[in-house]
């Protein structure tokens, strides 16, 4: 016992690490403890900005409900404990963040009482709410924020994505969803390439796809919009509204004088070669006047301060190209917009003398107009380099199956160009970067969701490198795991994450699911912002078909605030006869619950609720995950005493493919064995026999593949295909084999599967 004069030993508390959001926070000063989201937490808007932040408050409330299950009220009153506070302070500055902080930066301060997001602009507040939502989503209980202060801003002004809708129509729902996905990752410019056409190849121009995607009621342009899909003014207004709500600016692009088949189809006299071309004839004054009329019609739709007029890959009339370039740039400025174009001047002119310098350029190819030439000529430019940032879906060129995420994460930032053309980080002429999807393969049959599947895997990586560069401070594999958990954000109607990956041993992800009520699939889709809800009442069930009989020993449930108080986990081989393997009574909170049990073979698993925590709401789960006991033999070296033919080798029994098999010579005393790689605790062996099965055989184990011990025996097994599951007292061994004694047929022994497992489940934490 210490003496009365002994000094007390102070408690040690760890300073909170920087939350792992995407993109990573620029600065973080951690405190101790956490802020807890409470039942009566509110979103409080600073009084002076209540009107300016009202829409953001309502949006954040709905998003917090989607992420956590709690829907906080929005209030202009004085903050109380548990509230989230949003505030605009135009005087707020950060010396390191500078102009980027002033335009889009924010501070996020969490104490044990409140979370406060303050920014110089409403857009900065919005980006702060993205970080808050991601922190909550990644928290185990979805209700905790570590105490500390973040100061955050982007390294670059332009953090973009370009989508070619000219060659392939994308639905309005898809565009709106992508604006939300961009906001989730703090990307801020969506460039829509609104017209283009396919390549001629061996076809006549009359058979080549061409598209223009804006539809107006103006009779002078009637028929210009594509019949296979276009956006009217209401669609475009919805895009602009969605963009504004998600911190994104839409950069509209109308591309000419090349890529102009849609305009030539509408006015054949404007095309070269009597309209047999996708290049406009710039020798005719009416050509430029027509293009000005197109911009006159649609620029009033556009809320962006910038409008893109294309101007790339036109090589047939270089002198008139310069005139067209300068006239269109001046015309767009006369309409109140800043002009943008694709950099092409290294090909179009021996030098850039006489070209309008007040045009923002996309540097898309070093040969056409690389960053060093752009710097020399004084242009502001955006890195859209084709070799690094172009996707042409399913083509044999330009990253047809998606960008190289590991390269981008480990080696790229917006200042990096190939061919020795890189510029200094944050060069004042370099505005940022923009990846691009070009739908060159106009006759291919892929869908807009297929494009999403190619884009999503690197969206988070690009956002990271554009916002805070290399500050993620983790290997690519760990970063990608965080991206998987975050998914693609909130409020989506068309797209969802394609990166959902099962945890080690999970066998339920994406499987067929049913329920007593509600959308059962939401519990098994791997998306952390969707949930299954039963509706009111104490009795409900949720069931998943695992697809085949598997050995399971654990189920994880992630409850929303509408949790179950009393419930059971049941399993079945046939979906009709059920056995209870685990249960819980008296649960009192949302969050994760892990139930473990002795391994059991089942094809179906279900949750059966008997008493809800809130009877009026019933049950709701973010996810139900069913875990298989690992097969220690899977993909391990496997040998046998004989093989009937080379294609029926012993490795087929442990390759995880239920359609391949091993078959022995036509003799009784044949064997198959697997090397587990190191001594393992073994207690269960599964043999999935073909008709040529074993009547009498032993299961043997060994430490050295020389001295064997029998742990289980089968005698007198009936003939015919069947699965034998043999359990025995736990034993440690490196090698396991089936030693045949007698066959059931005149053929040899034949196995579809040989599986080896331990039977020790993980301890139940409850």
Shape: globular
Query: What is the mean predicted local confidence, pLDDT?
Result: 94
Unreliable stretches covering 5 or more consecutive residues:
1-6, 761-766
Number of strands: 32
**Strand line-up in the sheet with most strands:** 8-9-12-13-14-15-16-18
Distance between the termini: 34 Å
Helix content: 10-25%
Which percent range describes the beta-strand content? 25-35%
From the alpha carbons, calculate the radius of gyration and give it in angstroms. 32 Å
Helical region count?
15
- Structural class by sheet pairing and helices: alpha/beta
Biggest sheet: strands, sense, closure?
Answer: 8 strands, parallel, barrel
Strand and helix map with partners:
Layout: E1 27-36, E2 42-45, H1 50-68, E3 73-75, E4 84-88, H2 98-104, E5 106-110, E6 115-119, H3 122-138, E7 144-152, E8 158-164, H4 172-184, E9 189-193, E10 195-197, E11 210-212, H5 233-245, E12 249-256, H6 261-266, H7 285-298, E13 306-310, H8 318-334, E14 338-342, H9 345-348, E15 360-363, H10 366-369, H11 371-377, E16 381-383, H12 386-389, E17 390-391, H13 405-411, E18 430-437, H14 448-467, H15 476-486, E19 512-515, E20 532-533, E21 540-559, E22 564-572, E23 579-584, E24 591-612, E25 620-628, E26 638-640, E27 662-663, E28 671-689, E29 694-702, E30 708-714, E31 722-743, E32 750-757
Parallel strand pairs: 2-3, 2-4, 4-6, 8-9, 8-18, 9-12, 12-13, 13-14, 14-15, 15-16, 16-18, 17-18
Antiparallel strand pairs: 1-7, 5-6, 5-7, 10-11, 19-21, 20-25, 21-24, 21-25, 22-23, 22-24, 26-28, 27-32, 28-31, 28-32, 29-30, 29-31
